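Could you join me in thinking about how sequence relates to backbone shape in a protein? To get us started, please write out a protein record for me. Would you write everything just below, so we can both look at the same thing?
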Amino acid sequence: MTRTRRSHVARLSGIALGLAALAISAQAQTSPWYVGLQQRFEHQSNVLQSPVEISDTISSTSLIAGLDQPIGRQRLFGSVTLGRVNYSDQKSLSHDGHSLQLGINWEMAGNLSGVLAVDSAQSLADFTPAGFQSVTSNNLVKTQGGRFSVRLGTVGRLSVEAGGNTRRTRYDNPAYITRNANIDEGFAGLRYRPGGSLVLGAAVRMTRGEYPNFRNPRPGVYTTEGFEKDNLDLTAEWPLSGASRLDARVSIGKDRYDTISTRDFSGVTGQVTWNWQPTGRTSLVTSFSRNSGDDASIALGTGGVPIATAASRVTNVLAARATYDLTGKIKLAGGFSYSDGTSVSLIGGGTTADVSTVANLGLTWQATRAIRAGCDVSLRSRATKAGVTGYDSTTLGCFGEFVLR
């Protein structure tokens, strides 16, 4: 492990240990803090997501901690996960991972409120993203970001809000450097409550981004590819009944790229989500989304130099997830998703398609307030399409967790 990585892990470990100390000292009360350990074992039938299946057994050990602390009219929230993932056979894929979030929900006099938060994560990247050359070596993806929002008016019918977010994505593997991205976004709009619990919204959203290493004309030299996205977002939050709620967003917008005009997009995107609780024990969440993409595909050119060859354009995703409380301590959960995405070739001008399905089922047992355990199975399948290699994968795993609250 490099000195930089050691110092990064050390800093996060200090945060987690600090949360642990506060959590343990507060056990005599109803504490807003929690800290614990989780151990998971799983067997994957196709760890490299390839037509040639290579199976492996994976161990994941994680320290978890978090807080949800009211401070007067404010609320401080945060969570930390520090983990080590070990592969039994494909040892080169073993890695350290983390996720960190810290933020505050704030409120001031005069119906002024908002959110400020930062986050960081590190995990193993997808081995075969659509249109990409497969990578079988350790390829970590690191993301860092932040978000903020300000709202004026929380009680009356009309409120005004504005905010933004930023995201930086970096890949360890040199062959994926063209996938690095910097994205900044800002929005401003109105929310209106015409009556009852229905809330309607309209906002202008502007996104500016770039791929800092999109082209590599000669060794050691990179040129960028920038893009702009402008959208009008129309939203609705509609409680249909005490057991049913509908959230929807329709976005009308344009995407424009500096040089790759074949990737430009004009049209309608959006998302609709339906939350339904037909009984006290059963809940169902169904969603459909259509979004334009920000991802770039690559291949290795002459001399092993990475070059961008394709870029995602539009992806449609249909998903559903259901949970059922078998008893007061045992919960059954299952889900299904279907995604259909297209990518535009930056060389020939044609398109490629990526059609994937994922199904999963799991059982969780909350033995005590501090002890939780469970097992789950997941099936994933990607169809073979033009420019995309298909594969199937099955994952079977079990976990145990001990958390002090």
In short: The two ends are 33 Å apart (CA to CA). The first strand starts at residue 33 and ends at 44. The longest helix spans residues 3-25. The helical segments are 3-25.
